[in-house]
What does this fold into?
Amino acid sequence: MSEVKPLVALVGPTAVGKSETALRLARAFDGEIINADSQQVYRGFDIGTDKPGPDVRAAVPHHLVDVADPRDQFTAADFATGALAAVREIHGRGRLPLVVGGSGLYFKALLDGLFPGPGRNTELRRRLEDEARDQGLETLYRRLLDVDPDYARRVRSRDRVRIIRALEVYGTTGRTLTDHFRETISPVRHLAVIKVGLDLERAALYRRIEERVERMFARGLVEEVRGLLAAGIPEGAPPFKGLGYRQVLQHLRGGLSLDETKAAARLETRHFAKRQLTWFRKMGGVVWFPADGVGALESYLAKALQ
It folds into this structure.
């Protein structure tokens, strides 16, 4: 390896096979995995996030899994802080850090950096929260599309936290988050960052998504949600907004049958995969490999790490 220490970022849509590929790469290159899935950070949310089990995590060290209380919002800034600490620890052991996941904002925070301010504007945020409650979140999302279309297209129209924060920043500074991001400094600029992505033909990806959804329900996703609610996790907890969990909550309220719940989860996951691909296609410097061609990816990394 060169004197500049390496960092591998493995991206791609949900169900494409990132976790299995990461395990193979970690074994091949003496690596440790840093989770960049925004749902796997939460304790107790296991089945719906397809979280690696104890045996997998015992075989290959995983970082930033089960690190957050589900009642708390784990932000992209929290991720960047934790990931940087993990990178330093892994390098200190002479091993290779592999950042793996599908959260575009997490990768942006780590690879490009987050601007340092402004801090919380309590009065403006309260007004935005009131407006979202009284007029609907879609009103704020349309406003964000007007003032910062680039950022608006990167977040979900239901992402209350990020929409309000973006408008708060714009209202406080007079500048958009996109403008601020352009002026940030990468916290990993001193490292040799190798960005690789996994892709799969659309029909094959959709088959994998359907299989994953079926597997989650067969493993007991509904029972997991019941248990979390019984343990006192409120329905408004951040991870309950994730794929599968939101649909199961509707099912438990009586709004969807089990078959309708599965269908809704499949559809939402396909839409999410499309958004992920759009995000990662815009990420500069990613070298893409077919999900069923991991050997080529392995050969590429072997050369890149020399």
